[in-house]
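sry for the spam today, last one i promise. C-alpha cells for design, 447 residues
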C-alpha cells in the first residue's frame, strides 16, 4: 500500500462553509428547508401584482373596526351575462316606480275630515231648475220649514211655459238610480277639489229658455231660480192648483194632473252649475194622474280647499257662551266671507237622496215633495302635498327595496343555475364512463 501524505492533500487546505459552524449546526435539517421553500412560494403574490397586505389584520384600534360594508377589489370580481340582465331589469323597475312616486306626489292626495259644525248659520240658499209636465198656471209651489214659516216660492222663482219635448231626454237625462251604462261614461267622472275650485271662475247662470214653436200651446212649465230659506229642516213641494192648500178659484180637473218632471239642477249653497249633484239631469214620468213623488235629502255642509291650514287660521277663536248666539252668528258669517274670498276654498253643501214614488188614491194629495234635513256635521275635503323631504324618503325606500330584493333574487337564481350545472356535469361524467368501458371492450375485441 503506497504512503500518502495527508498534509499535502488540497482538500485539507480549502475553506468549507460548515467549518465555522457549531457541530450541532452541521447536521442537515429537512423541516427548515421545507419552511424556506414555502416562504419562497408565498412571496409569489408580488410576481402576480397582488397585494398580500389586503389579507393582513391591521394593528391598533380605529374606526375601521366598525366598518360593516364588505369590500372586494375589482381584480377579484367577475362580470357575467346574467348579472348584466338583472342589472338592466332592476334599473328599469327602479325608474318606473320612481316615476310613479313622483307623479303621485305631484298630484297630491285628498283627505276627508268630519267635525261638528260649530258655527251658527241662519240662511240656506236653494238653487232649483226643473220642468213640470203641466202649465204654470196650474201649479202651486210652496216651502214649509220646521220653524213654522210658509214661503210662497212660486212668487220668488221664475216660471216659464215651455214644451216637454224640448227638455225631455236633453243634456243626458237619466232616471235616478240608473247604472253607469244608462247614465253614460262622462256622468261618472269623479269630481275632485280642483273641479270645485275651477267652478268659482265659471259663470253662475241658469240655462236660457228655448224658443217656443209657433202655433203650439205650451204643455209644460219651467221653474228655476234661487231661494233664501231658513237653515232648518223643511219641505219643498209642488202641487196642483186647488189641491193641498185652500184657495179661491176654479178647481183643476183631475185629468189635467201630470206630475212627470225633469230636474236640471237642485243644489244647496252657492250656485255652481258646472258641478254635478245627485238629482241633476234626472227625470221621472208617470201615466197616472194621481202620483206622488217623494225625495228625502240629507244635506251635509262641505268645504273644498287646498289650504286646510288657512281654514284653521281664519276660523274665529273666540270662546263664547250659549247666550251669545248673535255674536256667534256674526263671527261665523265673517269667517265664511273671509274664507270664501280665498281662491283656494269653496263652501258648499252635498246631499244624499232617497226616492219613493207611488200611486195615491183620489182623496190623497199628489205632487212632487222634496224633504230636506240639515246634518249637524261639517265635512272638509282637502287636497294636500307631502314635503320634499317625505318624497325623498319614499324614493330612497323604493330604490333600496328594489336593490335588496333584486340582490336576493340574483343570488337565488345564481345558486339554482350552479346546482343545475353540477347535476349536468355528473350526468355527463357518468355517461362518459359507460362510453369509455364500451370503447375499451371494442378495442380488445378488435385485437
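last one done:
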Amino acid at each position: 500500500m503506497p504512503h500518502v501524505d495527508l498534509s499535502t492533500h488540497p482538500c485539507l487546505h480549502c475553506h468549507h462553509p460548515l467549518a465555522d459552524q457549531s457541530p450541532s449546526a452541521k447536521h442537515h435539517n429537512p423541516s427548515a428547508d421545507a419552511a424556506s421553500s414555502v416562504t419562497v412560494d408565498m412571496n409569489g403574490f408580488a410576481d402576480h401584482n397582488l397585494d398580500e397586505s389586503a389579507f393582513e389584520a391591521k394593528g391598533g384600534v380605529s374606526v375601521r373596526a366598525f366598518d360593516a360594508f364588505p369590500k372586494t377589489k375589482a381584480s377579484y370580481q367577475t362580470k357575467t351575462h346574467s348579472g348584466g340582465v338583472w342589472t338592466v331589469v332592476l334599473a328599469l323597475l327602479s325608474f318606473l316606480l320612481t316615476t310613479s312616486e313622483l307623479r303621485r306626489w305631484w298630484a297630491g292626495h285628498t283627505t276627508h275630515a268630519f267635525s261638528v259644525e260649530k258655527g251658527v248659520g241662519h240662511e240656506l240658499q236653494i238653487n232649483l231648475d226643473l220642468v213640470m209636465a203641466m202649465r204654470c198656471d196650474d201649479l202651486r209651489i210652496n216651502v214649509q220649514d220646521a220653524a213654522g214659516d210658509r214661503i210662497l216660492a212660486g212668487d220668488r222663482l221664475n216660471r216659464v211655459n215651455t214644451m216637454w219635448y224640448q227638455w225631455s231626454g236633453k243634456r243626458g237625462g237619466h232616471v235616478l238610480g240608473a247604472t253607469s251604462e244608462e247614465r253614460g261614461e262622462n256622468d261618472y267622472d269623479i269630481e275632485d277639489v280642483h273641479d270645485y275650485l275651477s267652478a268659482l271662475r265659471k259663470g253662475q247662470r241658469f240655462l236660457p229658455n228655448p224658443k217656443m214653436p209657433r202655433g203650439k200651446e205650451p204643455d209644460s212649465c219651467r221653474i228655476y231660480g234661487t231661494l233664501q230659506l231658513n237653515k232648518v229642516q223643511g219641505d219643498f213641494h209642488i202641487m196642483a192648483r186647488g189641491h193641498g192648500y185652500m184657495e179661491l178659484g176654479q178647481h183643476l180637473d183631475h185629468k189635467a194632473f201630470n206630475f212627470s218632471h225633469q230636474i236640471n239642477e237642485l243644489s244647496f249653497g252657492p250656485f255652481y252649475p258646472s258641478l254635478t249633484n245627485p238629482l241633476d239631469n234626472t227625470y221621472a214620468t208617470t201615466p197616472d194622474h194621481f202620483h206622488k213623488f217623494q225625495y228625502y235629502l240629507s244635506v251635509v255642509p262641505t268645504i273644498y280647499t287646498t289650504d286646510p291650514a288657512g281654514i284653521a287660521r281664519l276660523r274665529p277663536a273666540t270662546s263664547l257662551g250659549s247666550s251669545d248666539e248673535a255674536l256667534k252668528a256674526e263671527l261665523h258669517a265673517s269667517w265664511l266671507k273671509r274664507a270664501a274670498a280665498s281662491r283656494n276654498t269653496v263652501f258648499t253643501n252635498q246631499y244624499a237622496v232617497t226616492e219613493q214614488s207611488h200611486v195615491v188614491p183620489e182623496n190623497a194629495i199628489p205632487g212632487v215633495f222634496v224633504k230636506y234635513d240639515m246634518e249637524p256635521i261639517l265635512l272638509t275635503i282637502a287636497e294636500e302635498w307631502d314635503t320634499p323631504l317625505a318624497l325623498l324618503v319614499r324614493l330612497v325606500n323604493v330604490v333600496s327595496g328594489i336593490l335588496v330584493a333584486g340582490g336576493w333574487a340574483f343570488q337565488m337564481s345564481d345558486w339554482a343555475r350552479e346546482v343545475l350545472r353540477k347535476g349536468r356535469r355528473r350526468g355527463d361524467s357518468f355517461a362518459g364512463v359507460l362510453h369509455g368501458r364500451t370503447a375499451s371492450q371494442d378495442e380488445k375485441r378488435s385485437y
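The two ends are 66 Å apart (CA to CA). ok im logging off now
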